[in-house]
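Comment thread on ticket #2218

A.B. wrote:
> Attaching the input chain for the structure job we discussed in standup.
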Amino acid sequence: MKYLLLVFLLLISVVAFSQKKYTFSGKVCNQDNKVPLAGVSVSTEEYPQQGAFSDGDGTFSLRLPAGDYNLTFRLIGYDIKELKLRLDKDLRQDIFMEKSVVVLDEIEVSATKKDGNVKNVQSGVAKLEIGTVNKIPVLLGERDILKTIQLLPGVQTAGEGNVGFYVRGGSNDQNLILLDNATVYNPSHLFGFFSTFNSDAVDNMTLYKGSMPARYGGRLSSTLDVNMRDGDIENYHLTGGIGLISSRLTLEGPIQKERSSFIVSARRTYADALAHAIGVEQVKGSKLYFYDLNAKLSYVLSKKDKLTLTAYHGKDKLGLNEIAMMDWGNTIASLKWNHIFNSKKASATTLSYTDYKYNVSVDLTTGLNIMSRIRDLNLNQEFSFYPNDKNAIRLGFSSVYHQVVPGDLESEDPSRLDVSPYTHRYSWENTLFASNSMKVGDRLEVSYGLRLSSFGVMGGGDYYTFDADDHSIKDTIPTGNGQFFKTYWNIEPRLSVACQLSKTSSVKAAYNRSVQHMHLLTTSNLSSPVDRWISNTDYIKPEIANQVSIGYFHNFDDNMFEFSAEAYYKDLRNQIDYKDGADVRTKEIIETELCFGKGRSYGIELFLKKKYGRFNGWLGYTLARSEKKIDEINNGDWYAANQDRTHDVSAVGIYELNKKWTLSATWVFATGSPMTFPSGKYVVDGHAIYYYGERNKHRAPSYHRLDLGAICMLKQTKRYSSELTFGLYNAYGRKNPYMFGFRQNKEVRNQSESYMVYLFSVIPSVSWNFKF
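C.D. wrote:
> Ran it. Output below, let me know if you need it in another format.
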């Protein structure tokens, strides 16, 4: 606790300056629709070292000595706004910016400010604007933010065409994904080929993979913070698109002009319906589709208060004639209240609800159904303080109630239920956090913070003790409803330091400790709706990661190019893996299938980006390792984790040929995934049964692919725009492995052979997009 006390003493011991200073604050909005603009840089000629950015609600605050100033407001895609100001008292004024007549390139992978990657204190942060997502070619032409972030260094894809991703050697479940502050447990549709995020409804997204702010926690590797955009507060718009397998439609506009607005966005696939229509015999009587619905209401209650309500519902459905039916999806709701006390104090209060659920009907004739779900109810409170122009303080708390249902069984014929439903698990997670970003002179900035977290394992079912050698059950411990059976306390310090070497270069270093209490159990790299989430018990302990990183950042040619090189090392504790032959999906007491140990990941990330001009793009390269060490696996030696990729390369190019045509291309390369091959076999009734040797000793073939895209602007006026987008996925037809298997040779039955399954060869796509 002494560390917590130290940080809070530092936060409250900020020294004020003797020179009289005043605060200029306000909100930056779009001139046409009055929608708040996030990420606008605010600077002044007189004090170039002082500056600010507008937050997610367009609010900014700048504290300066008394005097006359020339302020400049900048945002990519908008005309520069200049303002002359005499500051002799605290002032507040709203700023309105107009979109540029000429559409600027929208590649923005770091910060909005031209030299933000050099001057921002945080490293390992990537900010993506939706304009980037909409121009990059992807599978079947469906714009996807999760596939776009896979093109950044330090981020690898979880599989062919999959939206799952690994960050700096972490597993798929070690990424915290938020939609307007609500947790998204399964961010994928159609077994991972599409994400839950409809790009028409998304405003911006930020990925933290290095120095994570203290307000984020609960995952070891990264936080992806996705913000849904507000509806137009002045005019009504209809936006949509029609593609080969899906269509989408978005309606937005004011409820009460300049006071409130709404946006509703819907999307649905129809691959099965299209196959039925053209007479594909194999899909008759089957279903395969997904739909999702986004909605957001925004209310400006006063100049100091804003209320937003975000809702999301999505579902996938897969049916195989009369054999089985599966559906899964997310329901999310978030209510947020932003309040400005004065120019130095603000708060944000969020109440959110998350419900992820899947149902499997394994025998439609008898009505046997299996249901699993995870539900969260979360209250998050954050306060922001700006005591002077050198410090920005954030502190607050979060409280999350978790309910995990591993599996409930129902049947119209009760006699068929010969197994008991899994025990429901309940837990309560609470966190206190505080941080301060402090400028020390003109060249040094420090951001430090602390999280104090508690995770209470609650009763309502049986818990168990296990044998240390074979993990078999030794004893059963009954617990009562509402009883706190076990509580884990953890302190998570955060520290980032940035030193300006010159106006165009800097060095940054960071230390980050993270703790994870919710864990995803799967034996595959592929995203599956029936992957099983579990929480801590007295036996399953929190995962802990300590990460250190250092990086060099440099801009050149008047900030047209940016370069960065970052190195990191991550030490991981209480890592979970599965014993050989484990059954993680149907085993009721899952602890008997698990084993625990430690892990490590380390690597170097190189990044070069061209930001402006008719041609822009980036190159990314990652050299990394991710390993585990568990006594029961490979005789306790270090072995490659499932997500280990030694080399990862991504190249992105976007070229504005003319006002009508924009061309794009991406090329990716990655070392093949670790694999476990059989070391022997025995034959029973003519069928080969394999037994396996060392875990992840072998490698799949390397993965590489070229995607091409083009956008043709058919018509663009102030009231209407229309375009065609073309895509070519896997342009040179590389047969990348989706999965491997082993079988007996058909000709020589006593010989075994391996085989590879691949999904995609060359896949063209076309879609029509419009906006009224």
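A.B. wrote:
> Thanks. Noting for the ticket: The first helix runs from residue 2 to 12.
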